[in-house]
Design goal:
232 residues; alpha/beta; Rossmann fold; 7 strands; 31% helix
Length: 232
Amino acid sequence: MTDEFGSYARRYPEIINLTSAITGEKYEFFIRFRVSLMKRKLTGNGAHTGINRILDFGCGIGAAGKILEDAFPQAAILGVDSSEKSVIEANHQGLSRSDFICSEGEALPLADASVDLVYSNGVVHHTPLERRGAVLRELFRVVRPKGQVFIFENNPANPLMMRAMAKSPLDSDAQPITPKELSRLFENCGFRIARSGYYFLFPHCLRFLRWGEPLFEQLPLGAQYFVWGVRV
């Protein structure tokens, strides 16, 4: 397969910053926000302990690696991506507890029940429709019983997000998925849905309102949403 993402590996932050300029934030802000949201949910549910191995599924150039290391200081991070050039860039970071490997999503080189937590952003909308079920089943295989999976996706109901995707060369193959469709995939693969919700409601100029984002989590207004599944 042509490594389409690999051709943009070194320009990835630049491209994200251009397409998100309307928000007034840089790409690292979005990663920190997602990881913080994930940890807050886990802590609130008492599921933040015993997380020793995290799978960053669709890691790209490894931009989330350092942020995941900081948020989960006891955990080893394994980043997996199908783009070989992106994985090379990720490994150049030299992170102390993160490793990055190239693999297709349906055949991860991991043992059964070997991962405590899966973090994944923006992968499903790049996955062909006929492969999405197989990818979720593979995540179910590698996560341990009572392990957690957080998948973050762009909100098809948000016109600004859809406009940004239409302009981004990274999303030329994108097929957005709704929270309802993604939740159904989770359940069909055996996961229990712990929570889903929307976020990224307020741009930088309204950042003083961000403390209230959890209050609006169930309104389909945010630029992105998450689905949180638990392997039962």
